[in-house]
Amino acid sequence: MKEILLVEDESDISRLMQLHLEREGHRVTAAATGEDGLKHALSRAWDLVILDWMLPGLSGLEICRRIAPKLPVLMVTARTEDSDIVLGLESGAQDYITKPFQVPVFLARVRNILRRSQASPASDALTLGGIQMDEVRHEVVVAGEIKALTVSEFRLLGALLRNVGRVLTRNTLIQLVQGDGVAVTPRTIDTHVFGLRKKLGSEGDKIESIRGVGYRIQGHEK
Ligand code: CA
Prior knowledge:
It contains eight helices and twelve strands. By secondary structure, the protein is α/β, with parallel strands linked by helices. The protein starts with a strand and ends in a 5-residue tail after the last strand. The protein binds calcium ion (CA). The site of calcium ion has 5 residues, from loops.
């Protein structure tokens, strides 16, 4: 079962796509506006995002530019001009389909993308629950909202997310956070973790303090 986000404002088409995707055994979340679509898109690591080109508010192309190629995208467009298709693919979409489409063709495109992305996970993103971290863009998104972290908080979170379920000692964390000429003490680490937890909101509860040792982030790896 794959988690698919479907962003399409035409309810008939949206329902049709959702029905067929669910018959294939996938779980579908539907959004009908650009803003809602982007919010959902940023909220987790979807297996596939299906984006209609023309949407109220943000266009599918704008959303695609924000999320691809981190997330696999199938663009849906009523346009048939080659230049538009090129624009979509250059913005990072994996594939496209033009409306009106045949359902078997649509499903074949979906299967292809899911198969490809499974073969080569093209992502530098670290995710856990509602936390999504992009180390390349230096961005942390929690439940769809971008959080401003300090460099130290960012490094700490990255280390924890790369070691889900493992305890990281304060010494390990000190070495990670330590910059040139900056003395970091165990107390400093505690302060950074405190700040980090606060910024992560309810997701911050996942960071567990191991008395006298260090910290661990709880979760289940996919
Ligand atoms: Ca539309």
